[in-house]
Specification:
Peptidase_C26, alpha/beta, Gamma-glutamyl-gamma-aminobutyrate hydrolase family protein, 7 helices, two-stranded antiparallel sheet, 262 residues, binds the ligand N[C@@H](CCC(=O)NCCCC(=O)O)C(=O)O, 23% strand, 13 strands
Length: 262
Amino acid sequence: MSRLPLIGVTTCSRQIGLHAYHISGDKYSRAVATAAKGLPMLIPSLADLFSPSDILDALDGILFTGSPSNIEPVHYQGPASAPGTDHDPARDATTLPLIRAAVDAGVPVLGICRGFQEMNVAFGGSLHQNVHEVGTFIDHREDDTQSVDVQYGPAHAMHIQPGGILAGLGLPQVIEVNSIHSQGIERLAPGLRAEALAADGLIEAVSMAQGKAFALGVQWHPEWEVSSNPYYLAIFQAFGDACRARARARATQRDADASNNA
Ligand SMILES: N[C@@H](CCC(=O)NCCCC(=O)O)C(=O)O
């Protein structure tokens, strides 16, 4: 009997009152459950206690989630952030080595927004700290005076490049996506390829050029109302399929190990 693939969902560390928490938005776990058809397993940001291989041994895929916090610029040799910038060093210490290890081990990966930026930084790329201050890009931030439905509604066109994962899913060459970020890819990491660009040239999606398994990062939020957008849904379904393939391969390996040891 096949079981649900176990899909790790990264978390942010947050102080709430007197206590520290590991938290993740409901929409990420819900999209894993309903669209990727996996069992979401939250990954605490406890790099001091668990190595990437401890985590990978337990999982069939990992969703690297979005977050209001920014990656500390020390990880991409960038200038210091403006005072008051929201950082999460415990999350950086967990996710950056974990992405490298997951891709190396052929564990399927989907990165969203901060998760997409983590993918680029993990492999040696850098970030614009404020895309809207560069001068050549539109403002990619949401209007936070609007309702959440408007904030996560279609914001700009995105052009899908031929030959990548997104094109392979049958997505049209141009789709509308939402946009809720102030940072963005400056230098694309070696080994990553640009899958899609906004009209202003900002990279909106990346994948591993020579990935052993599904490894896609997107700057926008396909988890948002995933079931009502066929393009967003196709991404989660493809990710879920890759996680199911790994779950099956791991079960086969376990059966072979058990019969060899019998
Ligand atoms: N802080 C980074 C990443 C933006 C991001 O991940 N936004 C998500 C917000 C909350 C959510 O929907 O989970 C940046 O500003 O570029």
